[in-house]
């Protein structure tokens, strides 16, 4: 085992011991708090030690099984949170079984284990955040080098200029290679002038490189496959630029996509009948719960819109508009009317940030997303989900499909009330804005999962409560 590998194993072992100590301490602290609040008796020291030790062991083994202590773990912090949640959940599930069978003689309050598990998740997330944030144990800051300094590589310079954009890695520099478009390439980043030949292995080892990102403009005849193959066998990650940008920015760089990347990359999981049925059931249940809490606000909004229209136009308080849904199927979206009744007398137009067609009431209900609430009916109809790309008008879709590559792929999932693009890109209405939003929409299509939906829901609630919407 090399010195680098020994160092990485030592870091992982220290992290494992520290997190085991955090779990054990949280369990001990929770036991004292629960006993004090409920007045329940505390079991003997030996029984308590056995229970705490066993639960700690189960959580750490689960964490090992989901890769939380891999020295080369390349994961976003959201991904780390998911793994922590799964680890503690697995430990909790097994401990519940043991507590009701083998360890049934240990008299603990019924709320002890669920409270302890919840606090363990919170504590481990906070602990891992500061470990990564402060770069302790050498974690959270992966050293990378980029092969290529041309037009493709410049996307890193343009999209990740701020320090916060490079939170998870340390970029040593860009290696120019033949075939790069240097005129449109890297301008202000560090260039590393090293030949990617047999000596490249020494460069990787001497600089403790964890990952090599392939971002050259011309691959054929310029990439040393044998050298990169050897790096991969030595444990160094070799990552395509598209995968790197997807992982670090939460978007897919549409203008750099190529068909083989879509074919061979992970994600874009197919739909099936069972998944569709469960998806509709969950969305309908959630829509019903939201409706129970919001119907008074919806009724009040309808009345205010009605009385604001003092011109005697008798226009409806609702606004129906044709949108493109799943697999390109058209449906009518329902919203509270936020514009004047004659807003589109001259035909369909892009909405703008300070659109003079928006009424005073419309400005308020748009800011807090109240105008979107009638779309709960679209959810009940199965035309929309809570989470998904926002549906666009067919007139604009026809134009966008012609001008933006892969735009039609966003229709592979149901449109939603809230989406990944709405959280990550400011409100805009143009072909250029649609291109930027598509990068986030395709990321959602590729990575759609229950955990990602929950994350989007939580962040959307924050947007609504604090009025950060459009």
UniProtKB/TrEMBL annotation:
Which keywords does this chain's UniProt record carry?
Membrane, Transferase, Transmembrane, Transmembrane helix
Record-linked Pfam families: Bac_transf
Q: Bacterial sugar transferase domain spans which residues?
A: 283-465
Q: How does it sit in the membrane?
A: Multi-pass membrane protein
Under which main EC class is this enzyme filed?
transferase
Statement: the UniProt record of this protein carries the keyword Membrane: yes
Q: Which GO terms describe its molecular function?
A: phosphotransferase activity, for other substituted phosphate groups
Localization per record: Membrane
**Which GO cellular component does the record give, naming just one?**
membrane
Q: What is its EC number?
A: 2.7.8.40
Task: Indicate the transmembrane segments per the record.
Answer: 12-28, 48-68, 80-99, 111-131, 285-307
Q: Which family does it belong to?
A: Belongs to the bacterial sugar transferase family.
Q: What is this protein identified as? A: UDP-N-acetylgalactosamine-undecaprenyl-phosphate N-acetylgalactosaminephosphotransferase
Species whose genome carries this gene: Paraglaciecola mesophila
